[in-house]
Amino acid sequence: MKRLNMEYECTIQDDLFIKGKYRDTKRYCISQERYMNK
């Protein structure tokens, strides 16, 4: 359940990244995904 929640937040953050409002947010999101994969 928590993993799905993180993926959902990641999708929202990625959308904001595309809009150019938060650039570092996507990098943080990718770091979280790599951490989850480990």
N-to-C span: 17 Å
Q: Count all strands and give the number.
A: 0
Number of helices: 2
Rounded to an integer, what's the Rg over CA atoms? 10 Å
Beta-strand percentage range: under 5%
Average the pLDDT over all residues and give the rounded result: 60
The stretches of 5 or more residues where confidence is low (pLDDT under 50) are none
How many distinct folded domains? 1
Order of helices and strands: HH
What is the 3D form?
flat
Report on the biggest sheet. Answer: none
Structural class: mainly alpha
DSSP helix fraction: over 70%
Question: What brief labels describe this structure?
Answer:
mainly alpha, 2 helices, 0% strand, 38 residues
Please give a structural write-up.
- The protein starts with a helix and ends with a helix.
- The radius of gyration is 10 Å and the shape is flat.
- It has helices at residues 2-19, 24-37.
- It has 2 helices and no strands.
- The chain is mostly helical and 38 residues long.
